[in-house]
Specification:
The chain folds into two domains: 2-166, Rossmann fold (3-Layer(aba) Sandwich), CATH 3.40.50; 171-363, Up-down Bundle (Dehydroquinate synthase-like, alpha domain). It is 52% helix and 13% strand. It contains 18 helices and nine strands. α5 packs across α6, α8 runs parallel beside α13 and α12 (255-266) packs across α13.
Length: 367
């Protein structure tokens, strides 16, 4: 069993020298095999309060949710959809809970995170897949009537990552985690553009942890260790830490995430979040290479090499294979900057025409 004392990892604003939040809500992350059964002991050490509400979906209830409800004598709450309406309803349902535990993936974690934040309850995560970097981040991303929206809440105080649970997840979800992490090479350069072009606040400590996450997964892929769950979990945690430091998703979400958000909003067929971010990473990185003199000099981050890493990670890199219409992907590159006008990226700096966007998709072999 491996323990990460997160409060020792995150420096204060004064130590860093920046003015961003450097949130230290997350106390500890524990990674190991078969450790779900130790949950009551961890809750005792954390000194959290009862009653406890356990959030899960239909699938994660079978995998671990049912057992966790038994272990903590909690109220079981099923999450049905990734919307703010759903989250508001659960906030009412769990109004008496003093501790909220999320057992699942992105939707379950975000709905539970929102509920805990609104009800000022303790919040813990037990991910059932390594599919995204929201496991310990303070960010909630759900659908509203106007589309997908992200808000800043609070990070969990504790995360328990049981590798026995993780290993049972569908392979595509692990591929999604790789995609979400490889996408950070674009998000950091987009953030730097915001700093240089608009004077946006920037934090080198947040950048350090984001790129540490990227280096870990690139190392795994170079060595063919695509099922090194402990290392991949560690990388996702570091990416979450970068968002805790920044107080936003900025170090971990750039033009490639806007591309994914657009697909979420307008395509009837969607892929897992990290897969869509991987798709967006390829044209965005090629566009950076052409029009951003500050793009990475490291050959590992050249778009062709990123594509090779994605293939090693089992990421489907065909719009047709994923059922995403080409015209939607084209419009995503052209119009996704309008989703977040204040989040300056390469797609804001030099707006694409539909003809240029189509050419980028062809060059990066997504079509």
């Amino acid at each position: 069993m491996k323990k990460l004392d997160i409060r020792r990892i995150i420096p204060s604003r004064e130590e860093c020298g920046c003015s961003l939040p450097h949130e230290k809500t997350l106390r500890e992350v524990v990674v190991g095999r078969g450790i779900v059964e130790d949950l009551p002991r961890f809750l005792e050490i954390l000194n959290v309060e009862k009653p406890v509400a356990v959030f899960y979906d239909e699938n994660t209830f079978k995998v671990a949710g049912k057992r966790i409800v038994e272990l903590v004598d909690g109220l079981g709450i099923i999450v049905n959809e990734p919307t703010f309406r759903e989250a508001e309803g659960k906030t009412i349902l769990a109004k008496d809970a003093r501790t909220v535990i999320a057992v699942g993936g992105g939707t379950v974690i975000d709905v539970a995170k929102y509920t805990a934040y609104k009800n000022e309850a303790f919040f813990l995560t037990i991910p059932t897949a390594l599919s995204h970097d929201g496991i310990v981040s303070p960010i909630v991303s759900l659908f509203s009537e106007s589309g997908r929206r992200s808000i800043v809440t609070k990070a969990p105080i504790f995360s328990l990552i049981d590798l026995d649970l993780i290993s049972k997840a569908p392979k595509i979800l692990l591929s999604s985690g790789f995609g979400d992490l490889l996408a950070k090479v674009v998000s950091i350069k987009d953030w730097q553009l915001g700093r240089d072009e608009t004077g946006e606040k920037y934090c080198y400590t947040a950048e350090k942890y984001t790129m540490k996450a990227v280096e870990i997964v690139v190392g795994c892929l170079k060595m063919g260790r695509v099922k090194d769950y402990e290392k991949i979990a560690e990388a996702l945690i570091y990416s979450g830490i970068s968002m805790m430091i920044a107080g936003s998703s900025r170090p971990a979400s750039g033009s490639e995430h806007l591309f994914s958000h657009y697909i979420d909003m307008y395509s009837s067929r969607r892929a897992p979040h990290g897969i869509q971010c991987a798709l967006g990473t390829l044209p965005s990185s090629l566009y950076h290479e052409r029009y951003n003199p500050n793009w990475w000099k490291n050959p590992d981050y050249e778009w062709r090499q990123l594509r090779r890493y994605m293939e090693k990670a089992g990421i489907p890199l065909s719009l047709n294979q994923l059922g995403i219409p080409v015209e939607i992907a084209v419009k995503a590159l052209v119009f996704s900057p309008d989703i977040r006008r204040e989040k300056f990226t390469i797609l804001h700096k030099r707006r694409l025409t539909e003809e240029e966007a189509l050419q980028l998709l062809k060059e990066t072999e997504l079509i």
